[in-house]
């Protein structure tokens, strides 16, 4: 499927919602991306000349990051100098007609430009404002610089990643930023619902990077509170759940989740270890956890003489959850991804085709879509300014003074 087909689909769930995105890089823009995929009009404000630094991150195709083509699809770009008084005034005009404002500056930045929530809500009482920062808008750390990796560390995640007694590793993507963006998106949707149901008033959504990470840390704090237990890194295993691990094959690794009671019995039967499958002491998870090393060794004794494909075929046939470790190539070539429209072809504004991830979640009544490719810097400046009532002469004068580009 390509992006042109998605343009004919049902209207988006957020059609009619106008969003001003002031953020850059990952956390704020990912929230904007998600809203835009479901029909919101997202106007992205970027600095003239440089724009969002993400335009130049990682691998570059025809002068633009391939990542940019995903993060900024369905958005409009206006190049506006927010450090100038005239630029701030234009931003206020845009915000006055918006439903949502997204920003991920350091706390106090907008206040320094005269754009606190209190000031903006006087212009637009129904405004919903998402603020994503390292440590939140309050508290003793609010003014410290914070990136996603720092949020992952403070949120407790980085301590658990990697092998025991070795340096903590990151998961390979900016998961702290993305978790913050998803929490922010949820907050926006709840605030939109509340505004509609309870009198039309907006509110602030305050998301801290480390809190978004901490929110998904499962039993970390309850176990410390109840038992004084400090959970440690466990490599590829899932502590306290057995068996659930990565196992070596002759040509790679597979992940096997055999921790359900009936699944465990089927798994042990497949690997010719009915002695373990029928052992009453291993009938439930608590018993298996006590002997997890023995069970893991038995599974790997069977997998290491077989290929990944062979293990996958046998365990899938026995209804035991199993998965290979996918690379980008594996994903791109997988028929299931294609069948569920999770790989789409998008024509960029520079005229080349690129494959990009599809839209998640899948709403069957009002699905998300790829309507327009990611904009070049300032592509929509003139059109957006005309929408808020500026004349061609005013637009030209702003351009001459380098307020816009």
TrEMBL record:
One of its GO terms (molecular function) is transferase activity. InterPro entries: CoA-transferase_III_domain, CoA-Trfase_fam_III, CoA-Trfase_III_dom3_sf, CoA-Trfase_III_dom_1_sf. It comes from the Bacteria. The keyword Transferase applies. Its EC number is 2.8.3.-. Keywords: Transferase. This is CoA transferase.
């Amino acid at each position: 499927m390509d992006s042109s087909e998605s343009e004919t689909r049902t209207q988006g769930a957020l059609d009619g919602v106008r969003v001003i995105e002031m953020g850059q890089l990952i956390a704020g823009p990912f929230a904007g991306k998600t809203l835009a995929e479901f029909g919101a009009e997202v106007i992205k404000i970027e600095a003239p000349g440089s724009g969002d630094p993400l335009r130049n991150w990682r691998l570059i195709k025809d002068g633009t990051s391939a990542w940019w083509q995903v993060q900024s699809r369905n958005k409009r770009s206006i190049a506006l100098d927010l450090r100038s008084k005239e630029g701030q005034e234009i931003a206020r005009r845009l915000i006055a007609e918006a439903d949502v404002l997204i920003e991920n500056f350091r706390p106090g930045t907008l206040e320094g430009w005269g754009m606190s929530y209190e000031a903006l809500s006087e212009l637009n009482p129904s405004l919903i404002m998402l603020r994503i920062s390292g440590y939140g808008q309050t508290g003793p750390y609010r003014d410290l610089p914070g990136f996603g990796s720092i949020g992952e560390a403070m949120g407790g995640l980085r301590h658990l990643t990697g092998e025991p007694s070795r340096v903590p590793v990151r998961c390979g993507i900016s998961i702290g930023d993305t978790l913050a963006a998803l929490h922010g998106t949820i907050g926006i949707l709840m605030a939109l619902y509340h505004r509609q149901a309870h009198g039309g008033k907006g509110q602030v959504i305050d998301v801290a990077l480390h809190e978004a990470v901490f929110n998904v840390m499962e039993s970390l704090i309850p176990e410390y509170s109840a038992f004084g237990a400090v959970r440690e890194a466990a490599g590829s295993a899932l502590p306290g759940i057995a068996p659930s691990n990565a196992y070596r094959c002759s040509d790679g690794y597979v992940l096997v989740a055999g921790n359900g009671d009936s699944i465990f019995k089927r798994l042990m039967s497949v690997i010719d270890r009915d002695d373990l499958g029928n052992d009453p002491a291993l009938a439930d998870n608590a018993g298996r956890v006590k002997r997890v090393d023995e069970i893991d060794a038995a599974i790997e004794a069977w997998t290491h003489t077989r290929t990944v494909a062979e293990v996958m075929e046998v365990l899938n046939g026995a209804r035991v959850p199993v998965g290979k470790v996918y690379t980008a190539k594996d994903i791109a070539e997988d028929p299931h991804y294609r069948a569920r429209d999770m790989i789409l072809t998008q024509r960029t504004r520079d005229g080349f085709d690129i494959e990009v991830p599809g839209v998640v979640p899948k709403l069957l009544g009002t699905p998300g879509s790829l309507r327009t490719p990611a904009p070049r810097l300032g592509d929509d400046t003139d059109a957006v300014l005309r929408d808020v009532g500026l004349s061609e002469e005013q637009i030209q004068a702003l351009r001459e003074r380098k307020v816009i580009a």
